[in-house]
Amino acid sequence: MAYGLQQWRRSASRGQWQGRSGAPQIGILSDSMVARGEQLSAVSMVCVNAIGLVAGAVPRILPAAPEADIDAYLDRLDGLFVGGGQTNVHPSRYGQTVDEKRDGPFDEFRDEVALRLIPRALARGIPALFICRGFQELNVAFGGTLAKEPDDLPEEQRHGTPDADNEDARYRLRQKVALRKGGVLQQICGADSILVNSLHSFLIADLAPGLVAEAVADDGSIEAVSVEGASDFALGTLFHPDYWASSDHASARILAAFGDAVRRHAKAKGAA
């Protein structure tokens, strides 16, 4: 039986991943949030443990601070992970008007950092994995747009978060996506289609130039992309392979492929 969040918690509590001396380092972009009046940078432990347990690297938190020195963030990284979050990309970032109640909540600190960080990381050839909000940020950073799905869709047709009593149920694998024949994701997963989770109410409207659709849902929505001409691993998924990376075959293959690319990059840097 597949398992997700509870398994991550047990693994972390037992200390099953530890940074090795000289292990590659993957930067994880944080969310910006306020708790009890204090501004915090927060990262899901699902992301942290996926990087440590499956990708085999040391996670480094990159605070979503608007004044961040992006080049300093990237200088010692061997990989970049831009994951999901509790907020949406602000529509003004892709030229749309905003409905605060319908389109929010927002995290404009993260928007500011992500939209500068992503192009610079890819220009440097740093292997990168973009998940959910991270994929949306990738599309916006390259000039694409997003659109919110209708609010009145029945749950079986909805991409947004399903009703559930716990996190494993919310992240359950429930949506079939077809993979591009001969594409990056098909080669990684070794399949023509995979079953994924779906928690994103914002879909790709206009796919940005330079991005290639790698997975498409039954309704035609784009669920994964690669970056055309990227010098190394550069993949975005609207679904969350990080959540089931310890037990689902396709999810594990995606995180493992990312980890392999990060180690290659670190080795090439060391040789240089």
UniProtKB/TrEMBL annotation:
Question: What's the domain of life for this entry?
Answer: Bacteria
Q: Where are the transmembrane segments?
A: none
Gene3D superfamilies linked: 3.40.50.880
The record's annotation in InterPro entries points to: Class_I_gatase-like, Peptidase_C26, PuuD-like
List the keywords (alphabetical).
Glutamine amidotransferase
> What is one Pfam family matched by this protein?
Peptidase_C26
PANTHER family the UniProt entry points to: GLUTAMINE AMIDOTRANSFERASE PB2B2.05-RELATED (PTHR43235)
Protein name, UniProt field: Glutamine amidotransferase
Which lineage is the organism of this entry classified under, starting from the top rank?
Bacteria, Pseudomonadati, Pseudomonadota, Alphaproteobacteria, Hyphomicrobiales
